[in-house]
Amino acid sequence: MTTKKRFRSIIRDGRLYRRLILLCMSTVNFISAETYFVAPDGDNVNPGSIEEPFASLKKGGDEATAGDTVYIRGGTYAMSSGISIRKSGSSDTKRIYFRAYRNEQPVFDFAGIKTQTNGVTISNSEWLHFKGLEFCNVPQLTGATPNCVLVDHSGHITFEQCEFHHNGGTGLFFAYGTGGHLVLNCDSHDNYDPLSSQGDGQNADGFGVHYQTAGTDTTIVRGCRGWWNSDDGIDCIHQNTAVIFENSWFWLNGYKPGSMDRPLAGNGQGVKAGGYDLPPNRVPEMVPQNIVRNCVSFLNGDRGFNANYHPVACYWYNNTAFNNRGANFFMQGITYSGGSDYTRTNRGILRNNLAFKGTDITNGTGSGVDAANNSWDLPGVKVSADDFVSIDTAGVFDPRKEDGSLPDVKFLKLAAGSDLIDKGVDVGLPFSGNTPDLGAFEYQDPSSITIAAPSRKTPPSMMGLSGEFDHTGYVIYDLSGRMIPSDNMGKIYHFFISDRRTPDGSHYISTNLYMR
Question: How many CB atoms within 10 Å of residue 227?
């Protein structure tokens, strides 16, 4: 990547300020990188060129090495067996990329499988990136529960703008390995396991992150949606490394797809953020504190946000829960004494959360709960329908934007004049106005937008985007407070630099290319 940098130094009151302008050239040079193509009408004896493509995703992966790209042409790949991938890139900048070609839509349809198996199994792999692919219709044929895509004993795998749907088990399931995964702008829906030996609907989550016992790298689920999954929207029970859930929506989980009928054993949690079963088992010495922020959970068959008997307090910042059948927030944790010994203890660190319709929170008090500036504990705050532009869910199922981000909806956005505006406290997330608002959606006055720099309390784990432009430690947002996606090339943005050294105010970078 050819990158030009220009720094302008300004002396004010004896202090040195630097204005950074990045002029990012559009020339990209990949050294020794190869490009392969896969198409429904291809043949694996072909050389894998665009004129003579391979026939299978596996063949493309077998040929690729670190830094290579496998482009998947649009169309339906009718699968009669599962796909196995065991391949690695070498680093974040030299992954193996599996990408939909241009604006084409590849669909891997596993309806033809006759023997129980996962749709795709990625095992013992590192540094892979899948983008723009659709995986569906993995059947459940026995009491065992298949996964549409299983990532097993692997690390640093990215799924971006992928869709997993109508499967007989979990849409995307991470198991074991070292963590460090990123699930960005993905949808997982209409997954249902009626034959599971544990009970009807017990195991089909939208997303699952489990059993990672090694490594310290955080797995991030960002900008995702999970709906009409028979068990939970997302579940990270038995997870020993930290998970961050952010800017994601979960609804209608715990119901049979396309209906309001409950499966007999489906849990129906929107977000299940931890836990090790009851009685607890396989509890690690260092239990991770997971983070749930800027998420929306609504109309689920049971609870919206569930601490799920986690032994330590997780962070719950700026989330919105609406009309879940159980409690909107459920903070039941445990005090773990070793072996199978435990006592029930409420646990959670909650700031700026918003609940409306139904039960706001249960198990939300006690010495293990640190709660402030939430809609249910602020004096004088009473949430009503008038606080929102709309409480109609119209648009939540809509297609994503061209860049993969969530559709624009009015649902649960704060209305002008709402007393929920500026009622929050600074937790290090971007916000408009004097102080943060309550809930997942920050109110934006279209006539005036200002964003305050995060305070010095911002945890380092919430900062670290880095890349070839050497802005290590920066998190970059657009003017609405959303993180800039990694793949918006050829567009002009005004970026906000969020850094503990940056004073309050507006700070801009003009660039035509951003890379993570």
Answer: 25
Place of tokens 């329908």: 385
How far apart (Å, rounded) are the C-alpha atoms in residues 136 and 110?
6
The answer for residues whose C-beta is within 8 angstroms of residue 27's C-beta and 6 or more apart is: 1, 2
How many angstroms separate the CA atoms of 206 and 325, rounded?
19
Burial level of 11, CB count in 10 A (0-12/13-18/19+)?
exposed
Answer yes or no: are the C-beta atoms of 484 and 513 closer than 8 Å.
no
Rounded distance between C-alpha atoms, residue 420 and residue 161, angstroms: 32
294: left (phi over 0), alpha (psi -120 to 50) or beta: left
Residue 395: how many other CB atoms lie within 10 Å: 13
| The token pair that represents 28 in the structure block | 């990209």
Residue 293, strand partner residues: 246, 317
Q: How confident is the model at residue 391 (pLDDT cuts 50, 70, 90)?
A: very high
Tokens of 47: 């050389």
Partners of 348 in beta bridges: 369
Q: Which two tokens stand for residue 18?
A: 């630097």
pTM: 0.82
H helix intervals, 287-396: none
Q: What is the dihedral of CA 92, 95, 98, 99, to 10 degrees?
A: 50
Q: H or E segment at 58?
A: helix 57-63
Take residue 341 and report the two structure tokens written for it: 């010994």
pLDDT confidence band for 445 (50 / 70 / 90): confident
- Full strand arrangement of the beta sheet holding 291-293: 35-38, 69-72, 96-100, 126-131, 155-160, 182-184, 219-222, 243-246, 291-293, 315-317, 348-351, 369-372
pLDDT for residue 458: 37
Q: Which of 210-219, 362-371, 423-432 shows the lowest mean pLDDT across its residues?
A: 210-219
Q: By the 8 A CB rule, do 87 and 62 touch? A: yes
Stretch 282-288: mean pLDDT: 92
Residue 163: its H or E element: strand 163-165
| pLDDT tens per residue across span 69-109 | 999 999 999 999 999 999 999 999 999 999 999 999 999 99
Name which of 17, 89, 24, 10 is nearest 470 in CA terms: 24
